[in-house]
Write a structure and sequence with these properties.
A 3-stranded antiparallel β-sheet has the order 1-2-3. It contains 2 helices and 3 strands. By secondary structure, the chain is of the alpha+beta class.
């Protein structure tokens, strides 16, 4: 996770998408569960046109999961 950074609020992280990654792969990496990909999608809906087609180099917000 080379681009993972904690923002000043400590609530969210940012992540730079790598080649051939999907939201399910990223969700598995951050949350341990690929089915939680929608949390990432909803936090980035303004940046992601198609959740099945991420672009390498895209910067995404990785929100904390609701408690």
């Amino acid at each position: 996770m080379e681009e993972q950074k904690i923002k000043s609020s400590g609530i969210k992280k940012t992540y730079t998408v790598k080649e051939d990654e999907s939201l399910t792969i990223i969700a598995r990496e951050f949350y341990g569960n690929p089915s939680l990909w929608k949390h990432i999608y909803e936090a980035n809906i303004d940046k992601i046109k198609d959740p099945n087609d991420l672009q390498a180099g895209q910067k995404l917000i990785i929100p904390n999961l609701p408690k």
